[in-house]
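Revision sheet: structure tokens.
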Amino acid sequence: MKDFLRDIIVQAGRITLDFRRKTGGLRVDRKSSKDLVTEADRAVEQFLVEQIRREFPTHGVFGEETGKQNGDEFCWVIDPIDGTTSFVHGHPFYSVSVALQQNGRTILAAVNAPALEELFEARAGKGATLNGEPIRVSKETKLEDSLLATGFACMRDNLPGNNLPYFLQILPRIRDIRRTGSAAVDLSYIACGRLEGFWELNLKLYDVAAGMLIVSEAGGKTTDYSGGDAGLPGELVATNGRIHDTMVAILGRIKTETNGENKA
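Predicted:
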């Protein structure tokens, strides 16, 4: 299955590059006032689903654009273009993200950032790689020396609880922050040591299923803001493991304070 996943996700990445070179412009629709979907998102997901159905007809599929199609104990979780806004604006920080779950547990994952020519892969218990070479999280232990990433899906969806209180309190405590616009890329960057941590609200399984396995197989850690199970993330904190307890303590305190203010 690993070779199959690598083959289809590389082909999917080429499809995105073909759309980026397309003359006459890219068709862009709106899921909401700020949330975009393109013809490339749909084409990539259709390609991936067709390939999976052909090779593994009994498997389930859960895609961002097509929803969930039930199957046997296996389910492929697909984000055809994670970072659609970056893709539309010509930024290279977008990815194709695919994970294979068995009875709800992710056992295989790949994140392809085709414009960056980077393919991250992981298999449960077998480690993580970047372009075939083993990767590990950074050894940084101090939050003040850490580079973090975050996202604002909550604000894009106009949700009442948003990331700004966390952002405003965390930023002064760290070295700096980066915004790629793709949670899958951010998680993969933790895995290879380019970032020490990431947090975000209102995430869906297809956003992070692959990236979470890549982080854990590279020696990192993923939980919710309370330090509990992040298997079905609405909130997610991922780190190199060494700053995780510090991040959870800060996020948990801000969450308590924010919830208290909302009730007042």
